[in-house]
Amino acid sequence: MSKVCPDARTALAGLLRDGMTIMAGGFGLCGIPAVLIEEIRRSGVRDLTLISNNAGIDGAGLGTLLETRQVRRMISSYVGENKLFAQLYLAGELEIEFNPQGTLAERIRAGGAGIPAFFTPTGYGTEVAAGKETREFEGRHYVMERGLFADLAIVHAHRGDSEGNLIYRMTARNFNPVMATAAKVTVAEVEELVEPGALEHEAIATPGIYVTRLIRLDSVDKRIEQRTVRTRQQV
């Protein structure tokens, strides 16, 4: 059965509601499900908890949901590129749960694997460990972290087929694959859509069993957060 939907509105139909938890893949602006994020913005759902490595930048990515005040809480690792995020947090309009980046990735992986909690040495003795259970194993101290599982995961893939099998490209592979496994429903957007069997089997990172719906993108706007260049050396 084909899982392909004609557009983002159809792909997210019946899935969005106020107060839900959404995982959004990508790293910075790389590999973010920008079209699905825009549809969430258009839908007007509010009081969202977002799980993402970062909060995008002002005017792009998840930053657009901050502009419309649709987000109540962020579970993230790095948010330093977004000035509005800081303003909302300092004004008490936005809750934040910071995680070391590796811990965030493992919390998501654990959620997808059905693991409710795990122990990590990262963060012991810091604010990260405040209010959490700690234990000592073989002379080393660890902090208990809970697995994360969302109502909805939205991901961006380089290639996919109509059965939902996905392949990611380079940096876009960072958080998208683990998030695809850690939600009740996963919706994907793909740059290139092929027929079943056309993908190289060993290259598939997300099996179609995890993906409920997907859309093919007509075009992709690949923005750069910070462009750094140097003068070309004369030969």
Automatic annotation (TrEMBL):
Q: Which GO terms describe its molecular function?
A: CoA-transferase activity
Keyword Plastid in the entry? The reply is: no
What's a Pfam family in this record? Answer: CoA_trans
Membrane spanning residue stretches: 20-37
Which SUPFAM superfamilies does this entry report, sorted A to Z?
Answer: NagB/RpiA/CoA transferase-like
| UniProt entry keywords in alphabetical sequence | Membrane, Transferase, Transmembrane, Transmembrane helix
Q: What Gene3D superfamilies does the entry give?
A: Glutaconate Coenzyme A-transferase
Protein family according to the UniProt entry: Belongs to the 3-oxoacid CoA-transferase subunit A family.
PANTHER family documented for this protein: ACETATE COA-TRANSFERASE SUBUNIT ALPHA, KETOACID-COENZYME A TRANSFERASE
What name appears for this protein in its UniProt entry? CoA transferase subunit A
Q: What is the scientific name of the source organism?
A: Lichenicoccus roseus
Which lineage?
A: Bacteria, Pseudomonadati, Pseudomonadota, Alphaproteobacteria, Acetobacterales
